[in-house]
Specification:
This protein is α+β, with helices and mostly antiparallel strands. It has four domains: 6-95, Uridine Diphospho-n-acetylenolpyruvylglucosamine Reductase, domain 2, CATH 3.30.43.10; 102-220, Uridine Diphospho-n-acetylenolpyruvylglucosamine Reductase, domain 3 (2-Layer Sandwich), CATH 3.30.465; 224-335, Alpha-Beta Plaits (2-Layer Sandwich); 341-428, Alpha-Beta Plaits (2-Layer Sandwich), CATH 3.30.70. The protein has helices at residues 6-16, 25-28, 52-65, 120-129, 146-151, 159-162, 198-201, 235-249, 261-270, 296-308, 320-331, 333-339, 355-369, 398-419, 435-441, 445-457; strands at 21-22, 45-47, 68-72, 91-95, 102-106, 111-115, 132-133, 169-175, 181-184, 210-217, 219-220, 224-231, 253-259, 283-290, 314-316, 347-349, 374-379, 385-391. The strands form four sheets. A seven-stranded antiparallel sheet has the order 15-12-14-13-17-18-16, sandwiched between helices. Helix 1 packs antiparallel against helix 3, helix 8 runs antiparallel to helix 10 and helix 9 (261-270) packs across helix 12 (333-339). The radius of gyration is 23 Å and the shape is globular. The chain starts with 5 loop residues before the first helix and ends in a 12-residue tail after the last helix. The structure holds flavin-adenine dinucleotide.
Length: 469
């Protein structure tokens, strides 16, 4: 731990209690490294306020001292957004983990109001206890926290039906960079009163203020779930399946995940003994959900859609355990990459119709320039979002390969995505990792407007310095 601002540490201790101002190296360690181990930051202290009032007082004190602040939720982000800079160690990490209360659940209005530090899994559980559904879902849900989900505008596994974190948000409570509290915590589905200010803070990655609470939409809890793994053979056939399924059962298609042959190969290399199905050609993990006691109509419609396309190689989950096995297979792809030494990761999104061509071009281009490199291509295909990840050839040192080639591989993949009117960041955000890309691909009016907003809300640049724009 570096930096010597004992006066600020004492002030912060007076606000949150000395036990919640961490300065010892060991106590701070977990807050200073990001999920992927790409960034190793330094900080003056890690502060853990207990509520909105304490958070506001902490921000006021840091602003008075001219000290940069890094909000942190579950620290599961993929772009280093929650990690302080590696420089002078003169930033304060503000962990929201103690803001962990469910403030209100309104069954009739189907809304829940939670503090920023409630984990995503706990929001889901609170909704379930009331017989409702909070549909945001992702592999990190046991650890990531709702403030982090909103600040990254997280996507995940059910975007196709329910949208991203932004679409699930009705109201926010935010501490502004000067310590004022902006109370936008309204549970209204209609509210046309000027600019929709809450939208500014969603996806802002802690650069405009600190979210301390949110009012979120809940949904009826489906009573039927139909999960299947279908071997489709190609991305174009995956698109056909998506269209046919949606024509047959509409919005009941909740998740539509794609695994290319190379992602299946990485699973096989990393987990040869795993007890999940072993398709050898590109496949889709799709989940449809519905209501009522009788799931025969849903099953019949989905079966007819599969027949229409002549898809015979289909595993249909017949029990909750089988369903979990299929999902486990999909969710273990990132673990497989880690197991094999890590990958150069990409989180691109394309207009759906352009996805098959992009995948072909990107695969050909990467393999031509880095022969022997191993791909791992999978993702939330129904949203146009794929993770196009590149691993070192089997006989290369993975870390050395990444050090030497990551920048060029990423430029190639991002160039192709942007050229096809896609985006280099679908759901993981910018953080530290993709700042250069933001500057490169969003030049001109778009980035200038972002910077104008940043200057207007945070003129001294104290909120999450060195992140986003
Ligand atoms: C196994 C795994 C699977 C994942 N799957 C998905 C997926 O399917 N979809 C997806 O979108 N992401 C996914 N992620 C990435 C990550 O979980 C999400 O980005 C998540 O939303 C981050 O939440 P967090 O609480 O961990 O935020 P953190 O990592 O703590 O912070 C992320 C950013 O938000 C800011 N921030 C955090 N809390 C606040 C706050 N209260 N106010 C203001 N700013 C704040 C931070 O400063 C930082 O810039 C996955 C990660 C893992 C490890």
């Amino acid at each position: 731990m570096s930096g010597s601002r004992p006066a600020l540490a004492t002030t912060l201790g007076a606000i949150v209690g000395a036990d919640h101002v961490l300065t010892a190296t060991a106590a701070c360690a977990a807050y200073l490294v990001d999920e992927r181990g790409l960034y190793d930051g330094r900080a003056l202290a890690v502060v853990r306020p207990a509520d909105c009032a304490e958070t506001a007082a902490v921000v006021t004190a840091c602003a008075a001292a001219g000290v940069g602040m890094v909000a942190q939720g579950g620290n599961t982000g993929y772009c280093g957004g929650a990690t302080p800079g590696a420089g002078g160690g003169d930033e304060v990490v503000i962990s929201l983990e103690r803001l962990d209360r469910v403030r209100d659940l309104d069954r009739a209005g189907a809304t829940i109001t939670v503090e920023a530090g409630v984990t995503l899994a706990a929001v889901q559980a609170a909704a379930e206890a009331a017989g409702l559904l909070f549909p945001l879902a992702m592999g990190s849900q046991a650890s990531c926290r709702i403030g982090g989900n909103l600040s990254t505008n997280a996507g995940g596994l059910a975007v196709l039906r329910y949208g991203m974190a932004r679409d699930l948000t009705l109201g926010l409570e935010v501490v502004l960079p000067d310590g004022r509290v902006l109370d936008l915590l309204r549970a209204l589905r209609k509210d046309n009163t000027g600019y929709d200010l809450k939208q500014l803070f969603i996806g802002a990655e802690g650069t405009l203020g600190i979210i301390t609470a949110a009012t979120l939409k809940l949904y009826p809890r489906p009573t039927q779930q139909l999960t299947l793994l279908a071997t489709v053979g190609s991305p174009a056939r995956a698109l056909d399946l998506l269209g046919t399924l949606r024509a047959a059962v509409g919005d009941a298609v909740t998740s539509f995940e794609y695994l290319a042959t190379d992602a299946l190969a990485r699973l096989e290399e990393a987990f040869p003994d795993a007890l999940w199905p072993r398709p050898r050609a590109p496949c889709v993990l799709a989940e449809c959900s519905g209501f009522g006691d009788d799931d025969t109509p849903l099953l019949t419609a989905v079966s007819a859609a599969l027949d229409d396309l002549g898809l015979a190689d289909v595993d249909l989950a017949r029990s909750e355990q089988q369903r979990r096995t299929l999902w486990r297979m999909r969710e273990q792809v990132p673990a497989a990459e880690r197991h094999l030494g890590g990958s150069v990761k990409h989180d691109v999104t394309l207009p759906l119709a352009g996805l098959p061509e992009f995948l072909d071009h990107a695969r050909d281009a990467v393999l031509a320039r880095w022969p022997g490199s191993r791909l791992s291509v999978y993702g939330h295909f129904g949203d146009g979002n794929v993770h196009f990840n590149v691993l070192a050839p089997a006989d290369h040192d993975p870390a050395a390969f990444r050090r030497e080639h990551a920048a060029a591989i990423t430029a190639l993949v991002h160039d192709l995505a942007e050229a096809a009117r896609g985006s280099f960041s679908a759901e993981h955000g910018i953080g530290q990792l993709k700042r250069h890309d933001l500057e490169h691909y969003r030049r001109g009016t778009e980035i200038e407007l972002m910077r104008t907003l940043k200057r207007a809300l945070d003129p001294r640049g104290l909120m999450n310095p060195g992140k986003l724009c």
